[in-house]
Structure formats: C-alpha cells, structure tokens
Amino acid sequence: MIWYWGRRGGGAQYCYEMARALQRQGEFDLCLSLSRQSDLYHRFLELGISSLDIDTYTDIGSAMRSVMRLPRLRRAFARFLDEQGVDAVLCTMAHLWNPLFLDLIRSRNLPYVVTVHDAKLHPGEQFKPYQRWLDHEIGRSDGVVTLSRHVRTVLCARHVLREDAVITAPLGPLLNERLHPLPLDGRPPRRLVFFGRILEYKGVDLLLDAFAALLRDFPDITLSIHGSGNAAPYTDRIAALPNITLDNRYIPENEIPAIMGKADLVVLPYREASQSGVIAMAQSCGVPVVVTPVGGLVEQVIDGETGLVTSEVTADCLAASIRRMIKDGALYERCARGGVRHSASVWTEAAAEVSRLITRLSAERQRV
C-alpha cells in the first residue's frame, strides 16, 4: 500500500509519480490511501488503483474538528489493510496523523517503509513539532527511502538504523507527464527563473546581488521569482532593480509548465538543501540549471553536462556561472539536451530501488 495523506505541493506530486512508476513496473499489486483534499486527488483516481480515501483537513479549524473522526478512521484503515491483503506499506511522505496509525501496521507484522525528504528542518522552518513526529515515525519504520545521499548521511547520523535498510532512490521530475522538452531556438539565454518557497536559506539575496552584477553586462536580462513565503526582506531590493517580476504566492501545479516554458535558466542560490524537485523539473524541460554546491544539489547536477555548480556559495560565484552559461552557447545547448537525457530514466531507477527494498524486507518478515 502506498500511503500519503498530505494535500499539496511536492509531497503530493512525489506520491503521484512514485505510484505511476511502481504501477508501470508491475511488480506489486498496488493499493493507495489518500486524502480527498489532495490537489492531485482526481489524477490519482485516473490511475485506477484501489484506494482508501479519507477526509483530512485544510486549516487549523478543520484539523481540530477532524480529531473526532480519528477512531472511525482507524477502524477503516485497519479494515482496508485486511481486505486488500496488504503485505507492506510505503509512506511517500510523513503526515502528522501517521503516528496514530502505525500500531495498526505493526500489529499485522507488515514491513513499514517511510520516505524521508528532509532529515531535519531547514533553517527558518517554523513548525518544530513536525521534527519530533518525523523522528518518531523513522524510529518505528523497518526501512527508509531518501532522495539524496546527503539526506541519507544526515539521517544515519541522527538515528540508529540498519545500513542496508536505508536507501537512496533519486528524485525524478515532478509533474512528469505534463512537462515536455522545450525547443532550442538558438537565441541567447536571458530569462532567469527562481521557483519555490521563499525562505532565508534559499539565498534570494545572493541571487539579487548576482543579478545586479549581471545587468551591467547584459542589460536585457530578466529575473522572475515565483513562490510563496516571506518576500518582505527582499522587496526593497527588487524594487530598486530593473527587469524583475515577483509572483509571491503558492503556485498551483497547473501553472508550473508555463513558468518553465518561459525560463532559459533556473537558478538555485541555496545556502542549504536536501535535494530539489525544481532541478528535476527544469532538466526534464531541457532548461539548464545553475546551483550552489550544497547538500544534495551536487548529486542532481552533472557539472557542465546538465547544468553548472558554482564553486562557492557567493553572489560573485553565482554571477560567474550564470555569465558563463549565457556566453557559451555550446555549453548551454549541451546542458539543455543533457538534462532531458538524464531525467528520462530517473523514475524507473527510483521505483526499482524502492521495489528491491520492499521485497527484501518482506522476505525477511516472512522468515521470522
């Protein structure tokens, strides 16, 4: 059973793509447990996979009211496990309600595998209790899927885990079926895009400083910043620079292809990172990326083949790499084509890694 009760953003997209990849692989008889409030709920239904669909919540008020339904949900969850003959459970992203249901999985002696996107909270993330919930869930799991070797290293330093039960399955392009390689029209790349939540560790200030330097050489260069979060620290700087647009809101998944379609370069000026779905999406569209050398970003970008990794986390190094990509047409085309090639098989590889882990854990459980 693939289990994800979250609602929106990369978590829902990741669950959908992993379900599709495992369905294509055909090794398991799949079933799902989903939230009806998921942004992608109707697209999950189109997969034709048996599913236990529940109502979760959309805000604090509905979350408080939903607590009264938890005993009934526990009974429905247990019944679904039994009726479907579930042999193993894969959680594609932890949810606040998960710990209240783990005993139903453990009491049936089912292997439980949780996907950990971030081993610890990023700087500036506010919801501290989530870390305790996540640590508890990891501690009760039989196996863990990470999306980068960096996260695996951090995770193993924080938890006592079996080495062979913690795997890395690479992150493929989210919205994969809706993203398509863009034609290379030969014009110089001038349109820079930053996409994602705006948090301090994302380095928007570094990008703005780099952009100011680039304007001196390329006065027609543009920068589009798309994402929710606190943009207040940057609005004065943005207003003082030409050719910048700020779209400071949550971006629905149906708008993402159009954003990628207007990008020549996607820039990730992060000070810290686990991995990035933005990189995978850009590569699948044939849009080269420029990233800083932090966390799992360096695992996702083949320097000089699918994008550029800056030498340091500074505005000067960021500007230098962007400048190089703008000036070197052969490099730009090589990275555009290389990104498409690289992204084509990632979900197949990821599903194979996850399948091997689940198969091994299930075999071990049967021998006990």
From TrEMBL:
Keywords: Transferase
GO molecular function terms attached to this record: glycosyltransferase activity
Glycosyltransferase subfamily 4-like N-terminal domain sequence ranges: 9-167
SUPFAM superfamilies associated with the record: UDP-Glycosyltransferase/glycogen phosphorylase
Protein name, per record: Glycosyltransferase involved in cell wall biosynthesis
